[in-house]
Design a protein that fits this description.
alpha+beta; Maf protein; 2 domains; 30% helix; binds 2'-deoxyinosine 5'-triphosphate; binds magnesium ion; manganese; XTP diphosphatase activity; ITPase; nucleus
Length: 296
């Protein structure tokens, strides 16, 4: 195993504590990164050190992110955003058809232990809680490049890179936040807006728009190994972008008001969020698929 890679094993059949990741709430105005690397075992020092957002061009923001020594994404590349027409075509009906088309059996059974490749400990905790008892999940934090494209393309590419990196079967996930008033942007690029604005300022993105509707989209990809076509599973949850309410522990949870209850994700119990969330819905599909294929 690569000694530079951090590996942690979580036996989901044991009584593992889904609340083992405890974070300090960043001070206002936002001074932290939205997510920290799993390689950090201690409370998050980088919450103190991420530079204040400046009025900046995309390229100077990029430079700021690249030069932050604590930024887990600093080796990744930001490309120019796609055109509006290009974005519309990403989220057209073909998108779902492609996903259905891709949901076909891999050539061999899924192993009973699965490598979930993510650098986001909050994602990991949710996936761990939702898949408990279904499959034993291992986590590796591999610094994967994320390409520009549709969520489908980004997730599929992420899965291929992860399978190459660990030379074996992998599960990856990509999360989007889509604003109707912006024709579904920022979508897969939400991470960069979170880095620039933080949860306390994110809602200003829709200042000047009457329509605050937002959709959270989660896409998992399972890839059997290098050279294999990833299989995708997607969940979507409708809501609204609102001024932050509740703990600012996980990404934009405090800015996303779930349409069903009027609460932000951050105001909901974790177990309640997982029942209705974009991630919960995607994992329901993955669970059904795994149940038929897990190698016992
Ligand atoms: O349920 C969620 N509730 C609130 N915020 C969330 C959620 N899920 C992801 N997020 C944030 C994290 C990141 O700012 C962006 C997705 O970016 P995304 O590339 O998928 O995640 P990431 O880079 O943190 O981890 P990974 O190593 O799995 O790619 O939205
Ligand atoms: Mg990512």
């Amino acid at each position: 195993m690569d000694p530079n890679q951090n590996q942690q094993t979580f036996n989901l059949n044991s009584n593992s504590n889904p609340h083992q990741y405890v974070f300090n709430t960043p001070r206002a105005p936002y001074q932290g990164q939205p997510e920290s690397s799993l390689q950090q075992q201690q409370p998050l020092p980088q919450f103190e050190s991420f530079p204040q957002p400046q009025p900046s061009t995309q390229s100077s923001l990029h430079q700021t992110l690249q030069s932050n020594p604590h930024d887990p994404y600093k080796n990744k590349t930001i490309h120019n955003l796609p055109s509006r027409d290009h974005v519309r075509s990403f989220f057209s009906g073909n998108f779902i058809q492609n996903i259905k088309h891709l949901d076909m059996a891999p050539t061999s059974a899924v192993p009973s232990q699965l490598n979930f490749i993510t650098g986001n400990k909050n994602k990991l905790a949710e996936v761990q809680a939702i898949l408990e008892g279904v499959i034993e999940l291992r986590n590796q934090n591999v610094d994967l490049v994320e390409i520009q494209g549709t969520v489908e393309e980004v997730t599929r590419d992420k899965a291929r890179r992860a399978a190459e990196a660990i030379q074996g079967p992998v599960l990856v996930e990509d999360t989007c936040l889509c604003f109707k008033a912006m024709n579904d942007l920022p979508g897969p690029y939400i991470k960069w807006f979170m880095l620039a604005l933080g949860p306390l300022e994110l809602h200003h993105m829709l200042d000047g728009f009457d329509d605050k509707s937002a959709q959270a989209v989660c896409t998992f990809a399972y890839c059997e190994g290098p050279g294999h076509e990833p299989v995708l599973f997607q969940g979507r949850t409708d809501g609204k972008l609102v001024a932050s309410r509740g703990p600012t522990v996980f990404g934009w949870d405090s800015c996303f008001e779930y349409g069903g209850t009027g609460q932000t994700y951050a105001e909901m119990e974790k177990s309640e969020k997982n029942k209705i969330s974009h991630r919960g819905k995607a994992l329901d599909k993955l669970k059904g698929w795994l149940a038929r294929r897990v190698d016992v």
